[in-house]
Design a protein that fits this description.
186 residues; Topoisomerase I, Chain A, domain 4; Gyrase A, domain 2; four-stranded antiparallel sheet; two-stranded antiparallel sheet; elongated
Length: 186
Amino acid sequence: MPIVDIKKNAEAKMDLSIESFKHNLTKIRTGRVNPSILDAVHVDYYGAMVPVSQVANVSLLDSRTISVQPWEKGMGAKIEKAIRDSDLGVNPSSMGDLIRVPMPLMSEERRKELTKLVRNEGETAKVAVRNLRRDANEAVKKLVKDKLASEDEQKRCETDVQKVTDKHIAAIDQLVAAKEHDIMAV
């Protein structure tokens, strides 16, 4: 694999790591209620476990209440049970076909726990990016060892990969800071 491909491959994988990190951040609750918090809840739908959003319309009723409107009559009880059994710590209530999920207010202690969780997720993402840097550098060293690239090309490539790594780590830091700000905002 040529050096150019190694750099492109490393950058593409780092981009994927950041996208994965962003996806993980959406699962962490902030002070505002977000309907995507129910994406982690799966319900039995004719023998297959599917997300609630695939069997019901999930939306906000007000700033602290999520509404879940099942598309089929018989799914209401199953969805309500799945939400209650999830680790979200919420107690849904059924009003005819509509399921209301009131979200409790977050305490200061819970907010601090969530910021620690966000920092931990950020560190995990940074480790993934650094591992990709290491893999790219090792691939270039192997090319030099096999006499397919010069040491000058190796140094240039390592410098370029380090710049890309620094850029991705800075992006992760920005995402962590923004999420912490959202969590601590009352």
